[in-house]
Amino acid sequence: NAGVTQTPKFQVLKTGQSMTLQCAQDMNHEYMSWYRQDPGMGLRLIHYSVGAGITDQGEVPNGYNVSRSTTEDFPLRLLSAAPSQTSVYFCASSYRADLNTGELFFGEGSRLTVL
Amino acid sequence: AQKVTQAQTEISVVEKEDVTLDCVYETRDTTYYLFWYKQPPSGELVFLIRRNSFDEQNEISGRYSWNFQKSTSSFNFTITASQVVDSAVYFCALSNSGNTPLVFGKGTRLSVIA
Known about the structure:
heterodimer, A: seven-stranded mixed β-sheet, four-stranded antiparallel β-sheet, B: mainly beta
């Protein structure tokens, strides 16, 4: 029962470096999304995907890229890391893009620090 | 536009007290879905409940109960006889029908003191 798997769990970057946060789910979920969690700000949506080949921007997409080449994977790329991207990142998926019928399953989170 | 407001940033109660977490939402849609999630100190997000806009019945699950009132756009969460294990951050969230992602409130941190 892997569910939603995020890697790495912890990462420290220097300003300007690039990296990819990986997210994989083994539940054949159509819908996947990335949120960031910052103190006092709750969870804010970065990008989401309603199926392979389809992605869309959320509330705070700047500085992040995504792609969805397979149903299982939804990586989040930071092209040039900035200290403002220090956060905890959560990947989430749902069986149906219509959240009416499916609860959102979350990964364990990835804590990123940008120095 | 969708919006979820959790006005209570932090709440502290003594064990066995009842506590209510407030959630007020804004949406123009007539069909929408409301959620509550729990984030314990370990950091994972745990789904608690989903409610659609056509079902205003209150729900009770053990010590947890939810009061949905469309007239005041509120979906409040009450914990009866709180326990230390209830200490967590609780998030209320809203989704309109179709392919609309969840919008979360900023969360309420609940501390239950023994």
